[in-house]
């Protein structure tokens, strides 16, 4: 079983709507959690980093949250745009290693 | 300016052949990586080099051999290609320091390998 689980696996939303992606992890000791965005045919790009003491962090229309007690993180996309269509990958640093989620594929339709 | 560049972007070859993928980063990072992304989009670490020294070598068949001539380059050579090697291979570098202690990964565009 993967130590970083993301849900949903994929979702389709209309342009202008909001959506929330989930990431649950079981790894420890926790160091930090990053969300990466991967456009089709490109490499992943870091959106946000969350450390143990941080609850919320925003990057434009992207807002990440972290609950280190329940080992859950979410990525909220506000007022989605066509350019938000991508895979979003949750990556957790722990014990000098990285564990990757399988990603959530978001499709934004006009 | 390209930060992490890898070539070729696409590679189609027959089973049993040997192929190489090259990677270069101009970010001044000390640590470089090779990742494999399968058809389910799952990224898996293969190798990591810090300042030309191998520091991570996951359970990868020894048909895969990385080479780092200097800290800005990390190439991947694959011998006797098999059907299961078909995937997208990503080169990455990290700053500051190791990605496993919080460094951000900077990825190349990927090299899609198709083995027929």
Summary tags:
A: mainly beta, six-stranded mixed sheet, five-stranded antiparallel sheet, globular, B: 116 residues, mainly beta, seven-stranded mixed sheet, four-stranded antiparallel sheet, 0% helix
Provide an overview of this structure.
The complex is a heterodimer of chains A (110) and B (116). Chain A is mostly beta strands and 110 residues long. In chain A, 0% of the residues lie in helices and 61% in strands. Chain A contains no helices and 11 strands. In chain A, strand 7 and strand 8 (72-77) form a beta hairpin. The model of chain A has no long low-confidence stretch (mean pLDDT 94). Chain B has 116 residues and is mainly beta. Helix content of chain B is 0%, strand content 57%. Chain B has strands spanning 4-7, 10-13, 19-25, 31-37, 43-50, 53-57, 64-70, 73-78, 87-95, 104-107, 111-115. In chain B, the strands form 2 sheets. In chain B, strands 2, 4, 5, 6, 9, 10 and 11 form a 7-stranded mixed sheet that branches. In chain B, strands 1-3-8-7 form a 4-stranded antiparallel sheet, with no helix packed on it. Chain B is globular. The chains are: A mainly beta (110), B mainly beta (116). Chain A binds chain B through residues 31-32, 34, 36, 38, 41-46, 49, 51, 87, 89, 91, 93-98, 100, 102-103, 105, and chain B through 4, 40-45, 90, 92, 98-102, 104-105, 107-110.
Topology:
The complex is a heterodimer of chains A (110) and B (116).
Chain A: E1 4-7, E2 10-14, E3 19-25, E4 30-38, E5 45-51, E6 56-59, E7 62-67, E8 72-77, E9 86-94, E10 97-100, E11 104-109
Parallel strand pairs in A: 2-11
Antiparallel strand pairs in A: 1-3, 3-8, 4-5, 4-9, 6-7, 7-8, 9-10, 9-11
Chain B: E1 4-7, E2 10-13, E3 19-25, E4 31-37, E5 43-50, E6 53-57, E7 64-70, E8 73-78, E9 87-95, E10 104-107, E11 111-115
Parallel strand pairs in B: 2-11
Antiparallel strand pairs in B: 1-3, 3-8, 4-5, 4-9, 5-6, 7-8, 9-10, 9-11
């Amino acid at each position: 079983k993967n130590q970083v689980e993301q849900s949903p696996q994929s979702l389709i939303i209309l342009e202008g709507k909001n959506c929330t992606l989930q990431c649950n992890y079981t790894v420890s000791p926790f160091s930090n959690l990053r969300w990466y965005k991967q456009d089709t045919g490109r490499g992943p790009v870091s959106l946000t980093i969350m450390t143990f003491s941080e609850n919320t962090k925003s990057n434009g229309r992207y807002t990440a949250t972290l609950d280190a007690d329940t080992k859950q993180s979410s990525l909220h996309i506000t007022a989605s745009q066509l350019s938000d269509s991508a895979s979003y990958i949750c990556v957790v640093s722990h014990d000098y290693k990285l564990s990757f989620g399988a990603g959530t594929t978001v499709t934004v339709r006009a | 300016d390209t930060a992490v560049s890898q070539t070729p972007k696409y590679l189609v070859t027959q089973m049993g052949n040997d192929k190489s993928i090259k990677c270069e980063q101009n970010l001044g990072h000390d640590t470089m990586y090779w990742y494999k992304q399968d058809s389910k989009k799952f990224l898996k670490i293969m190798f990591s080099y810090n300042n030309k020294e191998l520091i991570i070598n996951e359970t990868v068949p020894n048909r895969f051999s990385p080479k780092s001539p200097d800290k800005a380059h990390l190439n991947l050579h694959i011998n006797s290609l098999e059907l299961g090697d078909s995937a997208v291979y990503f080169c990455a570098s990290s700053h500051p320091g190791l990605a496993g202690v919080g460094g951000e990964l900077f990825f190349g565009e990927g090299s899609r390998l198709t083995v027929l």
